[in-house]
């Protein structure tokens, strides 16, 4: 068993997650059985209760774990489903240790960060490594080296290296800023950050230097000299147009051979399964204008998996998705959506922005513009239909109005009264049954699918017969037929919404069927609009 640990220096947000994911991709496509885990040094137990504005999207795994969005990147680059064990937080580690202490399992000893917390960290890492029967486990440490929060984790990893007798590599990601009119590459921040790492007993084996342009030979030489890292292990990770190019950037600099040599590990030749995908992604033949409508649009990472799902569609169809980020509150009238070829109404919680989303859905329903609704987007489409087609006055979700006259979206009876805000939702992978003769059946081509969920509210069963009479087609349900999972409109191909999060299982070579259908519909819609314009009056 071998470990590659990715730490970060200088600044946060320099692409550590993409680099970790890229290493996973390179190794797993070179015949090395690879998986990944993320260490998040915050005290929250998991990302479930975190505001997307602070941490970006909450990513949901098959087992229902609510995790950091980096886990989504690992899954996409590895094409492998992970579970909650792949995410460690300070909250999880301390909770476990304190509970053990309360049970008396430490037999009276003083419980301390070293060794009790560090042992628990190592135990969790080894559990993932052993259960996955892996060749290499890539471990990304969140935050920046030198942060107080990450100290126990780095100490545990230092010990792990010693215990594993060198079968652990430290790969440190740093920034090489380019300054002045000459854009001179400055190596000092890298030197300083390696110094901080060495102070805690960690000598990096590989440096990944982020910069605007490829690292000059002089910068590489200086970095190697001052950090004691081999020149060929100083890797330049320069800016690229699309993050899916990063594995290629690393591979060309011999990163796979480097890791193989350090671990004395056999591996096969790297097989670039994304060659065609990247070609289409970087040279699309068509463009569509799509609005992503939500309340966290100020931070695009809040909708990371949707952005990625659209990348996957582009890489498979050659249709580029030009995204217009729209705050739901900004949708005041029909003019707000002029010039678009389709709208995606996003997941969300709480009432703010919901009326704007309802206006957007109404516009799409009335004008024939392609619509895709996900989770809250699905619920909003049901509310819009109830209000404006069925004439159900004040139709709403009981999430937004507890005394709504027509609670067309309502809470599950078993959830009433739940106080703990973590993990109380319907979470993770659940079976969805698809009905024959529907658009959903055309897209999935099978009666049963599994998709990931994260919601508390459902379509209220009392209203379903009437909704169907008025033209809603619930083309997907849960196994009992109680929970509605997919909504379509009769006689309409380009209006579809799902209670599940189709974006979470979207992968480069297996794009979300709903996102792909939506983009193909948007292109068709755009071409029809153009034909009308060209045809003249
Ligand atoms: N707020 C809604 C619910 O809890 C939708 C959740 C979501 O969009 N993820 O059911």
Q: What form results from the Cα inertia axes?
A: globular
User: How much beta, percentage-wise?
Assistant: 15-25%
Domain module tally: 2
Q: What level of helicity do the residues show?
A: 25-40%
CATH architecture of the largest domain: 3-Layer(aba) Sandwich
CATH topology of the largest domain: Rossmann fold
In total, the number of strands is 23
Topology:
Blueprint: E1 2-8, H1 16-28, E2 34-40, H2 52-55, E3 59-60, E4 66-67, H3 69-78, E5 87-89, H4 90-102, H5 113-131, E6 136-141, H6 151-163, E7 168-175, E8 178-179, E9 184-185, H7 188-199, E10 206-211, H8 217-227, E11 234-238, H9 246-252, H10 255-263, H11 275-282, E12 286-294, H12 304-317, E13 319-327, E14 342-345, H13 354-367, E15 371-374, H14 376-388, E16 396-397, E17 407-411, E18 426-434, H15 439-444, E19 448-455, E20 457-459, H16 464-470, E21 472-477, E22 484-489, E23 492-498, H17 513-535
Helix pairs in contact: 1-3, 1-9, 4-5, 5-6, 11-12, 13-14
Bound molecules: glutamine (GLN).
Give an account of the 3D structure:
It is a single chain. With 537 residues, this protein is α/β, with parallel strands linked by helices. It folds into two domains: 2-36 and 90-273, 3-Layer(aba) Sandwich (Rossmann fold), CATH 3.40.50.300; 281-530, Rossmann fold. Helix content is 36%, strand content 23%. It contains 17 helices and 23 strands. It has a nine-stranded mixed β-sheet with strand order 13-12-14-15-23-22-21-18-19, sandwiched between helices. Strands 5-2-6-1-7-10-11 form a seven-stranded parallel β-sheet, with helices on both faces. It has a three-stranded mixed β-sheet with strand order 16-17-20, with helices on one face. Strand 3 and strand 4 (66-67) form a beta hairpin. Helix 1 (16-28) packs parallel to helix 3 (69-78), helix 4 (90-102) packs across helix 5 (113-131) and helix 5 crosses helix 6 (151-163). The longest helix has 23 residues, at 513-535. Bound molecules: glutamine. Residues 347-349, 375-376, 379, 399, 454-457 line the site of glutamine (GLN).
